[in-house]
Amino acid sequence: MDEMTVKIIGISTTDEEIIKNTTFEDLELNGGHSANICYTQKSYDKILEEPLEKTQKRAEDNKKNRHHSVFGHDQIQLYFEGIPKIIAMLLNNEKEYNTSEKSGRYTTMFGSDEENILYNKWMVIFEEEIKKAYPNEVYLTKSMIQKKAKENARYLLSIFMRTKMKYTTSFRQLNYLYDFACKMIDEETTHPIKVAIRPYLEELKDTLYSTGFIVSGIKDYRNREFSLIQEDNTFDEHFSRSYSINYDATFPALADLQRHRTLDYSFSLKDEKEFYIPPIIRSRSDLIEEWLDDISSLSEFPQGLLVNVNETGKYEDFIMKMYERICTAAQLEVMQTTKIVLDKYINELSKSSSLKDKKIYEEFLPYIHGARCTFPQFQCTSDCKFKEGKMLIRKI
Predict the structure, then answer these.
(1) Which fold has domain 238-270+306-390?
(2) The pTM is what?
(3) Where do the structural domains in the chain lie, given as residue ranges?
(4) Residue 75: per-residue pLDDT
(5) Cα 292 from Cα 319, distance rounded (Å)
(6) Mapping DSSP to helix (H, G, I), strand (E, B) and coil, where does residue 309 land?
């Protein structure tokens, strides 16, 4: 091997004929071929020529010895309709995936009949309050005001609201997710959400099995499970090269945050129920009271319920997150929680006697002056020209 070369030997497809004619045996065989790379001097072309029975045996041996990474090369694209929001969040909290999900900020969402009535009622209220608060703001076009109203009205809908998404993961991970669902269904627990989620997990299990790609022998043996919901995740906080912080957030905010797969997220329920109050109505005591009456009258778990969130990761990945989420275009609650983490991170680093922590502190200083358009080397492609947005004091 005198020089580097590359050959495309597989590609994900949406061709219906190919999908129809692909079986889990085909994917297992690809795993068997992949495993052979580790053990032979042969080229990949020669590997493909070996007897079928030999490849099948190697695939079976890899299943038995739990060397499942060879089954991770094939990617399966799934399109879910009617998937409950909390189930989508369970899937999206695991690392090996790509997802495209219907947006609650840019599209109208639908829950139960009762939820839809209040959703539409508050859509009108939020639009009116935004216009009152920002009567001459150029950024807030009619379309943008509607989007901001939707962003806030969705807090009323249940975490079991049905939605749709495209989800791509590997053959191996698909089987692990099936295993995680089985484990969570069988778990003995009194956790209110885990109890309430069981019927939807049964749906998920059956739906994943119906793909035809769930096989015996490929499942997680490392005692892992869905990582999102914890009994208590208020861990001790720390701030150095790595960090861990606890804060309150809603389900829509957490659903947005968890998509930063370089960072780890989980939540647990608070001892007492608390609900998010959108900043645009916080100056109106009458609207606050009406909002709390409405949101508490619906499902047991509306998306605007505040939960304990733990965020853990490396400071470099947090900086990357700031470049995406400290912006007028970002969901308000997500922008605010990201700024809360930044402020606390800097404050804790400033008190450290470690020279390395002081170096990280210096690295953070360029990010304290406002939205990402003030960040080093960031070039905005669509200037919002929204002063309150750039100063991080917007209410919508």
Answers:
(1) Alpha-Beta Plaits (3.30.70)
(2) 0.93
(3) 16-72, 75-209, 238-270+306-390
(4) 94
(5) 35
(6) strand
